[in-house]
Amino acid sequence: MIFDEFSPSRTRRTLTAGGRTLRALGLDGPLTGVLAIIVCIGILVVYSASGQNLKMVEHHLANIAIAVAALLALARLATPQYLRLFAPIAYVIGILLLIVVAVTGHIGKGAQRWLDIGFIRFQPSEIMKLAVPMMCAWYMHERPLPPTFKDLVAMGIMIAVPTGMIVLQPDLGTALLIAASGLIVMLLAGMQFRIVLISLPLLAGAAWGAWHFIHDYQRQRILTFLNPETDPLGAGYHIIQSQIAIGSGGIFGKGYMNGSQAQLEFLPERSTDFIFAVIGEEFGLLGQLLILTLYGVVIGRALYLAMQGQDTFSRLTGGAIALSFFVYVFVNSGMVSGILPVVGVPLPMISYGGTSMVTLLAGFGILMSLHSHRKLIGS
Amino acid sequence: MPRRVRIKDHWAEQRIFTLRGIAAGVIVGVLLLTVAARLFYLTVLKHEYYAELSQGNRVRTDPIPPSRGLILDRHGVVMAENLPAFQLELVRELVGGTPEITATLARLVTIGLLDAEDVGSIRRTILSHHVYESVPIKLQLNDEDMARFAVHRHEFTGVDIRARLSRHYPFGPMAVHALGYVAAISEQDLKRIDSDSYAGTSLIGKLGVEGAYESELHGTRGYREVLVNAAGRPVERQGAYTPKLATRQPIAGADLILSLDMRVQRAAEEALAGKRGAAIAIDPHSGDVIALASTPGFDPNAFARGLTTKQYDALQNDIDKPLINRALRGAYPPGSTVKPFFALAALRYGVMTPEQTIFCPGHFSLPGSSHLFRDWKPKGHGTVSMRHAIQQSCDVYFYTVANRLGIDRMHDFMTTFGFGELTGIDIPGEKPGLMPSTEWKRHAYKRPAEQVWFPGETISVGIGQGYMLATPMQLAHAVSGIASRGQIFKPRLVTGVRPAGSAAVTQRPVEPEAPLTAVTADQWSVIVEGMELATGPGGTAAAATAGSPYKIAGKTGSAQVFTIGQNEKYNEKQISERMLDHALFISFAPAEDPKLAVAVFVENGKHGGSTAAPIARKIFDAFLLPDKPRSGT
User: Fold this and answer.
1) How far apart are CA A361 and CA A64, in angstroms?
2) Radius of gyration from C-alpha coordinates of chain B
3) CA-based nearest distance B61→chain A, Å
4) Domain limit, last residue, from A213, A243, A274
5) What pLDDT was estimated at residue B571?
6) Which residues of A touch B29 (CB under 8 A)?
7) DSSP helix, strand, coil percent of chain B (3-state; round to 5)
8) Is B393 left (phi over 0), alpha (psi -120 to 50) or beta?
9) How far is Cα B264 from Cα B270, in angstroms, rounded to an integer?
10) Do B21 and A307 touch (CB under 8 A)?
11) Over the stretch A92-145, which tens digit does the pLDDT of each residue have?
12) Which residues of B204-232 are buried (b: 16+ CB within 10 A; e: fewer)?
């Protein structure tokens, strides 16, 4: 087959100046626009949720700067060829770092997750959020779809190794997200539904086993999720206070910086994991639906871009990035509104906290790069 | 199933992906709608519920205690007021559980702010309050206490100094037995009061007017809604917006206007100074108590400051019993002060005429009995009529009167003057004394042999001894009945109530008792004349009334001290001093138009004429001669 390098000059005449800039940067206009809106809303909400703490806002802006830099760099430079080459390397580096963390890891909140390399602290598990789906996509790239049973087992192992290590850190939430990103690849690759049906009892068995394997506080969280009122001042406090914040906000909210739950610190983790409740309290149902709609647009656009991928690797990686993003949105909003257990997942691109922001925007950088570096198929 | 040879079919693979992608998109949409539905449920369907929870979260209602009503004398002199004071308060939920509270109190003992022996009762009081209430643990801190706490302040959480209004009695111990006092709200108090209306209040009235009129004096508490953060700390604003918070100002307690006249009260207390006794002055035309003194007293300010256990024990165990209100609670044999009443009874029942004389040989015996009832004057008074019998306090005359009346008629008549019954004065703690009768004795004793009333017992009662007991208050109340010639009023200390913020005083109506109509005007005059003679030349109280510009009618009395507690330890001198007779004097003046009735009682004061009557004279002078310097007689 003959591939032609995509030439920006061909469409130059039909594009505006902004559009040309986006093309030159390898960005997708609609996706970039909506992401920018979400990030800007996030800055405003972090300012309010932090109790008007300018130091935190500055830090947040710095994180955004790093994340945007990562997005731009990946969108411009990470061609599908490079990414395919890099995927197994990133995966292996990730595994090695997880081992390092397990051995020497910096103790944070009683869990070994953080790696401190002088000027920067980061969680190797974040690398895995991208490395695992890319590794699976890389594995399937040369193989015919749908995956054979052997392929599924191979990918299962690729997913299970880092997931298991992260469960042991222990960080159940992240482990589940990484497992989900790998599973998404398997499903998008065409895994037969009957295999899904057969594996459900197996998963139930695994869950039963995991129940005896996980830490007490994780078990407590699940129990509390099922009945938060049993422990209103302990583990149930988060869920109750978060629902009070959302419910008391009503349709229109209490107004920017006027959410009493958030401002008076009744709402725990108000600028990180529970920031969606702050949006609910201060901007009401309308504010939350706006955010969900924006997320919906991002996911839809990302899926659309992924579908346009020209090879298996591009499509699977793009699809995994789009749907992982959805998983984060769903897990966080579900947890904050009380339909899912508290697992410590930040609200994508709004919550205060650098690691998740960088990972997410890096993912979108990859997604857009895969799209903009398509080759025209001579037809 | 796996084929041998599989080749990549790009179109088929793209189709698989597209289908899966569309399916995923549908699932994404459904799940996002699920979240949206949940949000709709929370924000629309359950909005009211969560809005209320959120309101309860952030707004705390802080009580504002009302300021206590003032107590004024009849001329508007302030006898009890409120002054700002600093006190140490503790909030249980900020300190922690019982072990933490114990540790905190122990540290306060270490730095010298609390006494070790008080810790137990303070802890009980703390534990009987709600966890969020600020409980006073030391009242009216002085500068030294404040400085000491300031140094250690950082070591304490949940303990802090608060400025509050505290009770102050500008005259100190003056009239304390009438006023009563306020003290820290105790565990027992909490059981009977509505603790909500006392939230923020640390003092409550005990005894006297402060105790009896607690509901008038207390007022209605207000509240202030305070914005609090999750740690329970009050904060000014939330975000950019300062919310509207409700405040209700407290309504101060009502002021009380007393019948007391501070000038007369002071004269009474100064005259009683150094003695154990009581003096009561009553306006016979209204029952208004002009003076009510009981000595020794104590400083009520010490209670408002908060007594340590040691200080309280010292007061409680004081041999002179300063905490006892002798005026209301001291039931003593009334002695010869009962004679005018029995004389009146003799006239009323016709067993004696005013001019009929009795020969007094210095002793009396019942027919058929060899037992001698002795007169206080061993040689006897000779031939005496009723007036002179009162003047000279002839015992034999009244032995005869008692013998002729019989105990039950004596009882019935004395009861109309309030003997043996509570006078009904408007402060608590009064004792009824004892006016014996045959029926009383039947009920008072268990064994039949003891239930019989013996004629000899009647004779003793005739001179106010034997079973008869009366309080100084009862004597004042009864003598006011002679002064008013039969129209007695229920004694009262509070004459008017002035609601907070109002200039108008609501007067309490006087309460007349059933008038004595069975006694004629002539009969009254005989008695009054006898009492006038008693204070004149040749009378028992002559010395004390000499030179007064108005005429005093009075009757002295002295009562034998029959018993001393067997277990009390006195030194020799004290034993002899405390074995002496009690001295009494009842009186009114001016005799022809009585304005004031006075009863004086001095424990172990020996003679009514020499000890008690001069005290009454000073009280009359203070009341009747207000512009002249008090007589120094």
Assistant:
1) 9
2) 37
3) 16
4) A213
5) 47
6) 296
7) 40, 20, 40
8) left
9) 10
10) yes
11) 999 998 888 877 654 544 445 666 655 556 778 888 999 999 999 999 988 888
12) bbbbbbbbbbbebbbbebbbbbbbbbeee
Angle, CA B290 vertex, CA B288 and CA B296 arms, to 5°: 130
Same domain, A59 and A200: no
What's the ipTM? 0.88
* Same domain? B306 vs B392: yes
Write down the catalytic residue from B202, B336, B437, B480: B336
Q: Residues 2..31 of B with a Cβ closer than 8 Å to A: which?
A: 2, 6-9, 12-14, 16-18, 20-21, 24-25, 28-29, 31
Q: Indicate if B304 and B177 belong to the same structural domain.
A: no
For residue A121, give its domain range. Answer: 79-213
Pick the range with the lowest mean pLDDT from A45-59, A83-97, A156-170, A233-247.
A233-247
What's the structural domain count of chain B?
2
Asked if B197 is an active-site residue, the reply is no
Average pLDDT taken over every residue of chain B: 87
pLDDT at site A230 = 55
Q: Does B235 touch chain A (CB under 8 A)?
A: yes
Taking the model in full, what pTM does it have? 0.66
In 10 A of CB A205, how many CB atoms? Answer: 10
Mean pLDDT across B599-603: 94
A235-250 pLDDT, tens digit each = 567 888 899 999 999 9
- Cβ contact B38–A48 (<8 Å): no
Of A24 and A45, more confident? A45
Collect all residues of chain B within an 8 Å Cβ-Cβ radius of residue A287. none
What is the number of domains present in chain A?
Answer: 2
Q: Please state the rounded mean pLDDT for residues B42-56.
A: 87
Phi-psi region of B182 (alpha: psi -120 to 50; beta: other; left: phi over 0): beta
Distance CA B524, CA B534 (A): 16
Domain boundaries, position B180: 61-258
Q: Chain B neighbours among A 327-366 (CB < 8 Å)?
A: 329-330, 333-334, 337-339
**Between A124-141 and A354-372, two packed helices, what is the crossing angle to 10 degrees?**
20
All residues at 6 or more sequence positions from B324 whose CB lies less than 8 Å from its CB, including other chains: B294, B330
φ, ψ for residue A80, nearest 5 deg: -55, -35
Classify burial at A229, counting beta carbons within 10 Å of its beta carbon; exposed 0-12, middle 13-18, buried 19 or more: exposed
Mean pLDDT computed over B189-208: 85
CA-nearest residue of chain B to A48? B239
Residue B18 lies in a domain: no
Stated as kind and residue range, the H or E segment containing B164 is: strand B159-168
